[in-house]
Amino acid sequence: MKKIIKIPALILSFCTVFNITACNEKKPDSSEETIPETTAVINTEPAEPAYSEPDISGQTIYWIADYNLNPEENENRSTAISLFNDVYGANIEYIHTDRNKIFETIDERILSGEPVDMVPYEINSVPEGVTKNIYQPLDDYFDVLEWDSELWENMHETAEMFSYDGNHYVIPYSISDPLVITYSRKLMKSEKLDDPYELYKQGKWDWNTFNQMTEKFISQQTEYTRYGIAGYFGEACLYSTGKTVVSLEDGKLVNNINDSEIAKAEEFMIKTADIYNDGWHSSFPQNMNTLFYAMQDWSLKESNALNPDADLMVVPFPKSPDSDKYYMYANYNARMLVKGSDKGNAVAEYIKCERLAETSEKYKDAKKALATQKITTPKGITVGYITDEQYDALQEYTDPTKLTPVFDFGYGMGSVMYGEGNYDFETRGIMNRLAYEFTEQKGNAENWEKLREICSGTIDEEIKKLQKG
Question: What is the band of 468 on the pLDDT scale with cuts at 50, 70, 90?
C-alpha cells in the first residue's frame, strides 16, 4: 500500500518561493513567513492508522565532518538546509574534523559528554563503522523518513545493498559521481567507428565492441602513438560483471575472489593495460591520440572546455558480454545516525529533506539550468561546462532503475582491504590492488592467478576479524 505523503506547502511550491540558485547551492535566510501544511494524496486505498510527524522545531543536530552543510560567508543555503530550517524549524551545528579522523572525533566527544548526532557516509562506514558500534540503524525512523512512500520507491534495492545484521544503517538519498567513459563523437566519425552512446542504448556496448573499436583505432597509426584508453577505470571494470569481491550472504561476509566473473574482469583489465595511456590525465586528451577517457564525471566540464569542437559524450563502462545489465560504480550520498544520539527523528527529517531536494519534480529544471551553466573566468574565458545531452545522460547513469548500482563490502573493511598506504606494493590495500595492479599502479603480480593467490588469504583473515560468531 502506498502511504500518504504529508508535505508542507513550501515543498510543493518550492520554485515559487526560492529562486533558481537554491536548488543546488546554499541560500541566505530571506523568508520568515509561516508556511501552512497541505496533504498530497498519493493513493486512495484505505488509510493506515494516523501517523503523527514528530515536532523537531528548535532542535539542533551536531554534524561532524570535514565540510559544512550550512552556508559559509557569501554562500547560499542548499535546498535541503532551507527546507530543514524553514519547514521544520531545526538547525545543524558544524563540528569540523579531518575526514580520516571521524571515528576518533566521535569517541572523543562522547567521552567528554559533548553531543554528536550525524556524520557523512564514508566508504568504511559498513561494515567497519557498524562493527565498531559507531552508528545506530535508521529502521526505527522509517515512518519519519516516509520510507514506504513514493519518495523512496526507486531507492529501496540500493539501500538493501548496505543492510548489515538485518538493519539499515545507510539510506542513500542519491547517487553521484559515476565513473564514466568520455569520448569524441567527432573522432569516432573520422575513424569510421560506431557511436558508443548509440551502442549503449541498443544494449551492444560491451567488452567486445570496446576491443573492436580500440583495435581498429590503434591499427591506424599516425605520427603520434595511439592508445585505447586513459584515466582510471579499475573499479568500473571490476564490477562490470556485477560480481563483488566481498558480499554478504545469509548474514555472513563471503570472499568471492575465486569467482569466474571476477577472473573475467581481471583478464579484461590485463588486456586493456596493453592499450593504456598511463600517467595522470585530468581531462580528455586534447591531441586525440586516445580513443576513450575514464574518470568520474567531475572531469567532464574541463574536458568540454579544453575540447570545444570534439563533440564529447559519455557512456558507462562497457558491460561484460555475458551480462544483460549495465552496472555502475559511483558514490552514494547518505547521512549516518551516530550511536547514542537522541536526535534520531531530527536526523531522519534532515535525510528526508535531502531526498526531497534530489527528487522533487519542482526542482529538476532549476537544478539542470544551474548544472549546465558555463563556468567562466573574470575575463570571460570558458573553463568548464556540461551540455544538456550530457547532463541528461548522467542523470540516467545514476538512476538505479536504469543502471544497476554496486556496493562491495570489501571497501568498508579497514585499511588492509582499502587504502593507498605508502603508495607501494607492500602497503597498498587489497581492493586497490584488484582495481589497479595491472595498469597505472603496477605491483609484482605477473598475472591474475598470482594476484588472486596473494589477495585471497588476506581477505579471509580480514573477514574473520569483522565477522561475528
Answer: low
